[in-house]
Design a protein that fits this description.
The complex is a heterodimer of chains A (567) and B (96).
Chain A lengths: L2 H22 L5 H6 L6 H12 L2 H14 L4 H25 L4 H8 L3 H34 L3 H51 L4 H4 L11 H11 L12 H17 L1 H4 L8 H37 L9 H8 L3 E3 L27 E3 L3 H9 L4 H39 L5 H24 L5 H14 L1 H10 L5 H25 L18 H18 L6 H10 L8
Antiparallel strand pairs in A: 1-2
Helix pairs in contact in A: 1-8, 1-16, 3-8, 3-13, 4-13, 4-15, 4-16, 5-11, 5-13, 6-7, 6-19, 7-8, 7-16, 7-17, 7-18, 8-13, 8-16, 8-17, 10-13, 11-18, 11-19, 11-21, 13-15, 15-16, 16-17, 18-20, 18-21, 19-20, 19-21, 20-21
Chain B lengths: L2 H39 L1 H4 L11 H31 L8
The chains are: A mainly alpha (567), B mainly alpha (96).
Chain lengths: 567, 96
C-alpha cells in the first residue's frame, strides 16, 4: 500500500475511534461538562493530561528544534517536564481540595474579588487562543502533506472532529478521547524511534541508543555527530551557543508557565480526591517523560541521517521525500557554486585552503519528525502512523484549550458575573454554544494564522508564568495575601512581560540581541523576571493593605489538608 | 467544640503544614540541583566527564535525559511522603 493509503486508513480509523468515544461519553450536567463529573481515575487522568499537554509543538517541532540546536534545545526538555514537579508539589493537590470548576473560579474565590476573576478570565482566554491557533495550523500541515488535501480543508476536518466531541461530551468526552489519543500518539512516536535506534545503534531502546555506538563508524554516536558538526562548520552538538544565564531564565519561564497553564490545571479538578490529584500528576509526567526522553534520541538520529543523506550529494539524485517536501516549501535548495552537489554547512565552514563555503540548503525544523521515517526508508505504514500521531497530539491539545475558553465564558463570565440566575440547563447550553463558537474562532485562526504564531506561543508561557503561577502559589502558601496584592501583582507581571516581548518581537525586532536585553535575558525567558516582579509587588502591596477576611483565611486552612483533623 | 480542642486542632494543623513545607524544601532542592545546576550552571564542567561505557557527556545527559528521570521519581516520592503524613495526622480522605 502507498503512503497515502496507509495514512488515510490509520487517520480514518483513529477518527472513528474518537467519534465513538464522544457518543459514548456525552455530558448531561454542568459538572460532567466542566470536570467530567469529578470521577476520573488517576491513571486515566494522567494519560489525558499527557495528551492534553503534548501538543503539535511537542510531537512535531520539539525533536526538530533539538536536532538543529543541540544542547540549547534542552530548555524545552527540562522546562516542559520540570514544571510538573511544581504542579505536583505546589498546585494540584490544593486546587483539587479547593474544588473549583475553572482557574478564574479559584482566583475569584480566593481573592474574594470579581476584578480578580475577570482579570483571570481575560488571561485564560488569551493564553488559550494563542495556543490553539498553533494546533490548528499543525493539523493543516499534516493534512496538506500526507493526504494532499488543501490546508483549509484539513483544518475544517479537524474542526468538525473536535466540535463533535467537545460540544457533545465537554470535559467528559475530551477526557476519554484524550486517553485514546495518548495511546495513538505515543505509539506513533515510539515505533519510528525504535526502528531508527535499531538501525543506527543496534539497541532497540532509543534512550540508550542515544549514548551507544554508531554501527557504521564504530564510534560513539554523539562523538560522530560532533565530528560531523565541526567538519561542516556547525557549533558542537553537545554544548550550545546560548549563554547560561539565558538558558536558565528560559527554562524557569517554561517551567512556571507549564505549571500555570489553565488547560493543564483544570485536569486535576476531574479526579475524586486530593490523593488522586497527587498521584495523577506523577502518572502524567511519567507518560510525558516517555516521549520527552525519546525526543533527544530522535533528534540525534535524524540529524545524523540528514547529514549523511544530503551532505555533498548530487541534487539530482535526492530521494523522493526530498522533492515532496520541497514542493511544500519547507525544504529549499539553491546551488550557489553551481557544482550540482548539496552543501549543507554551518557559518564556520571552510574549504581546505580556508575559503568560506556558502550554505545551499534550508530545512524547516518542523519537518524533522514527519520526514524522519521517509529519510530513513522505514515502511509506509510507519509514515502513516506518524501522521495519525501528529493529529492526535494537535487535536487533544486543541480540545483541552477550547474547554478552558468555553468554561471561562459560560461559568465565570455568565454564571458568576453577568447572569447569576441562570439555570443549570441554561448554563449547560451556554457552555455548549461557547465551545462551538470557540471551535469556529480556532478554525479561523488556523486557516488565517496571524503571521507570528511561533512567537505568541512563547508569549503564552511567559504570560502564564507572570500571572497565574504566582497568584495561585501565593493563594495557597501565604494566608496574608489579599486581593489588592494579587490583582496588582498579576497586572504588573503581565504588563511587564507583554511589554518586553512586544517591544523586542514586534516594535523593534532589529534590537532583539543580547546587547540590548535586560540582564542578558531574551524575550523567551522574560516571564521569569515577570514572575519575580509579580511576587515582589504582591508581597509588598499586601503588607500595606487590609488582611483578607476571616472566611478566606479559614478557606486557605481547609485547602492545605485533604481532610479536617479529628473528623 | 471546647476552647481546648480548637487550640489542639490548630496546633495539629500547623504541625502538618510545617512537615509539608520541610518535604517541599528538600524535594525542590533536588529538583533545582538536578536541572539548573547539573544541566545548566555546571554543565561545561560536568561535560568533561562521561557516563562510563556510553557516549554521554555527563552535563549533556543531565540536561536531556537525567533531569527528566529525576523529576518523575521526585513526584512519586512526594506522593509516598504525603500519603504517609496524611495517615499520621489522620487527615486522609474517607472512601465514599
Amino acid at each position: 500500500m502507498s503512503v497515502q493509503n496507509w495514512t488515510f486508513l490509520l487517520v480514518g480509523l483513529s477518527f472513528v475511534l474518537y467519534a465513538g468515544i464522544a457518543v459514548w461519553s456525552r455530558a448531561s450536567s454542568t459538572k460532567e461538562f466542566y470536570i467530567a463529573g469529578g470521577g476520573v481515575s488517576p491513571l486515566a487522568n494522567g494519560m489525558a493530561t499527557a495528551a492534553d499537554w503534548m501538543s503539535a509543538a511537542s510531537f512535531i517541532s520539539m525533536a526538530g528544534i533539538i536536532a538543529f540546536r543541540g544542547y540549547d534545545g534542552s530548555v524545552y526538555l527540562m522546562g516542559w517536564t520540570g514544571g510538573y514537579v511544581l504542579l505536583a508539589l505546589l498546585l494540584a493537590p490544593y486546587l483539587r481540595k479547593f474544588g473549583a470548576y475553572t482557574v478564574p473560579d479559584f482566583v475569584g474565590e480566593r481573592y474574594y474579588s470579581q476584578t480578580a476573576r475577570i482579570v483571570a478570565v481575560i488571561c485564560a482566554i488569551f493564553v488559550s487562543f494563542t495556543y490553539v491557533a498553533g494546533q490548528m495550523r499543525g493539523v493543516g500541515i499534516v493534512f496538506g502533506r500526507f493526504l494532499e488535501v488543501p490546508i483549509e480543508a484539513g483544518v475544517l476536518i479537524g474542526m468538525c472532529i473536535v466540535f463533535f466531541y467537545a460540544v457533545l461530551g465537554g470535559m467528559k468526552g475530551i477526557t476519554y478521547t484524550q486517553v485514546a489519543q495518548y495511546c495513538v500518539l505515543i505509539f506513533a512516536y515510539l515505533v519510528p524511534a525504535i526502528f531508527l535506534s535499531l538501525l543506527i545503534t543496534g539497541n532497540p531502546i532509543p534512550q540508550i541508543g542515544l549514548g551507544g555506538t554508531d554501527q557504521e563508524s564504530g564510534m560513539f554516536l554523539l562523538d560522530r555527530l560532533n565530528g560531523l558538526h565541526s567538519e561542516l562548520g556547525f557549533a558542537s552538538y553537545t554544548s550550545g551557543e546560548k549563554t547560561s544565564t539565558d538558558i536558565f531564565f528560559i527554562t524557569a519561564a517554561l517551567m512556571a508557565g507549564t505549571a500555570g497553564l489553565p488547560h493543564v490545571i483544570i485536569r486535576f479538578y476531574t479526579v475524586p480526591k486530593v490523593k488522586d490529584a497527587r498521584i495523577s500528576v506523577g502518572w502524567a509526567l511519567l507518560f510525558i517523560a516517555i516521549l520527552y526522553t525519546t525526543a533527544p534520541a530522535i533528534a540525534v538520529f535524524a540529524r545524523t541521517n540528514l547529514l549523511n543523506t544530503v551532505s555533498e550529494q548530487p541534487y539530482s539524485e535526492m530521494p523522493e521525500w526530498f522533492t515532496t517536501w520541497e514542493s511544500t516549501g519547507l525544504i529549499s535548495y539553491e546551488d550557489h557554486n553551481q557544482d550540482g552537489l548539496i552543501q549543507f554547512v554551518g557559518p564556520e565552514a571552510q574549504t581546505i585552503d580556508a575559503k568560506p563555503i556558502t550554505n545551499e540548503l534550508t530545512i524547516d525544523q518542523d519537518i524533522m519528525v514527519l520526514a524522519n521515517p521517509e529519510i530513513s526508508g522505514l515502511p509506509n505504514w510507519v509514515i502513516g502512523l506518524v501522521a495519525a500521531g501528529a493529529l492526535a497530539a494537535a487535536l487533544s491539545t486543541a480540545a483541552g484549550l477550547l474547554m478552558v475558553v468555553s468554561s471561562a465564558v459560560s461559568h465565570d463570565l455568565l454564571k458568576r458575573a453577568l447572569l447569576p440566575g441562570i439555570t443549570e440547563k441554561g448554563e449547560l447550553i451556554a457552555a455548549r454554544v461557547s465551545a462551538g463558537l470557540a471551535v469556529a474562532v480556532a478554525g479561523y485562526l488556523g486557516i488565517n494564522p496571524p503571521g507570528f504564531v511561533a512567537e505568541v506561543v512563547a508569549f503564552a508561557f511567559g504570560l502564564a508564568a507572570a500571572s497565574f503561577f504566582p497568584a495561585i502559589i501565593l493563594g495557597v502558601f501565604s494566608k496574608r495575601m489579599n486581593r489588592n496584592g494579587a490583582v496588582l501583582g498579576m497586572v504588573v507581571g503581565i504588563t511587564f512581560t507583554a511589554a518586553y516581548i512586544i517591544y523586542f518581537k514586534f516594535i523593534n525586532p532589529s534590537s532583539n540581541t543580547a546587547d540590548h536585553w535586560w540582564f542578558g535575558v531574551s524575550p523567551e525567558g522574560i516571564g521569569t523576571l515577570g514572575m519575580l516582579l509579580n511576587l515582589a509587588v504582591a508581597t509588598v502591596v499586601s503588607r500595606f493593605t487590609p488582611a483578607p477576611p476571616e472566611r478566606v483565611v479559614a478557606l486557605v486552612d481547609r485547602m492545605r489538608m485533604p481532610n479536617e483533623p479529628g473528623s | 467544640m471546647t476552647q481546648h480542642s480548637t487550640d489542639e486542632i490548630s496546633r495539629r494543623r500547623s504541625q502538618y503544614w510545617r512537615r509539608n513545607i520541610q518535604y517541599l524544601l528538600v524535594l525542590l532542592s533536588v529538583w533545582f540541583v538536578s536541572s539548573y545546576l547539573t544541566g545548566i550552571v555546571f554543565v561545561d564542567i560536568l561535560n568533561q566527564f562521561r557516563i562510563p561505557k556510553t557516549g554521554f557527556p555527563l552535563g549533556f545527559w543531565f540536561a536531556q535525559q537525567g533531569s527528566i528521570y529525576i523529576f518523575v521519581i521526585l513526584i512519586f516520592i512526594y506522593v509516598f511522603l504525603m500519603n504517609n503524613l496524611d495517615q499520621e495526622f489522620g487527615v486522609e480522605e474517607i472512601d465514599e
